[in-house]
């Protein structure tokens, strides 16, 4: 069967735009939205009004349109990006209702919406998570290469949108959220609220795994020896997704012994506390000792420290690969040696940026499978705070206590 590029593009575009949206065009809108009985009139939201200052404000819940959904928020994880926003380094997104790792219960469904983004029926009472919003119609990346929509300059997610006069409920650090037209969203009823809060960061590591796998001559399989550098929430999920994917021989690298213990529970076979070594050369010797004298096949760089990127090359064998997934903000520069580090080793180097909406189902299956094989991923949530203690939630994150901090909408 011959399938044209246009047909493939259309299929990918439909998956990204959401089967619900596609379905919408063929369904006659009904007169009224489908509502559950407990809809409130107002919603409290934690508004970042200026850098380092939240105010809990109460907004009226506006009427939703026929292609919108009203969600009663349950909980939302605090991301490193939220903390950067809070400190205004580098984003200056104020005023803004933050929170993009959230989940909640559908309260009201616009009459034109029948299904979620993979064709599952949606109704009041369903538990959902959201992924990317549609980019502007002028975005050429999304138009001609929708499988790479994550590279659009116009990338949008809830929780990172500026407050608008008529649209306050744009993020999950609030009691209610409105899902607007063109959003991708998924019904995930059969999952605990904790796991649902981890779907968004899980999508980040699923995307990184796919990026590494895109280097076809350098597979990730049962025999692959991998170093994961950095054991924050994303690094720990990275270890879990590699393990769930069948990769053994995972070496975790961090300077925090508590995090290294958690790394073991996520599937790391060996842990290295870099603070116990005199420098990268000594660490490289240790890694060689664990990898038949050759170094690791793959390294995943999951810190925001530029020098850590430069160091990682020294832990990788000739013909190996590096996936950079730690620098979500510009942390500065580092010096590498193009001859020794890249050329002479024939290193496959890939960057990984956010995720695409169609990777959410992968993230869902990864988390479920991880728990089933005994990786306690939901235990990565170490702290929970109510909405009016959002400041403390951010401070705990800033102090790097625990792993994943969650804000509950109560
Ligand atoms: Zn995030």
From TrEMBL:
Provide the Alcohol dehydrogenase-like C-terminal domain boundaries: 233-368
**Start and end residues of each Alcohol dehydrogenase-like N-terminal domain:** 65-180
Q: Which PROSITE patterns match?
A: ADH_ZINC
Which coenzyme or cofactor does it need? Zn(2+)
Q: Which UniProt keywords apply?
A: Metal-binding, Oxidoreductase, Zinc
What family does this chain come from, according to its entry?
Belongs to the zinc-containing alcohol dehydrogenase family.
- By what name is this protein known? Zinc-binding dehydrogenase
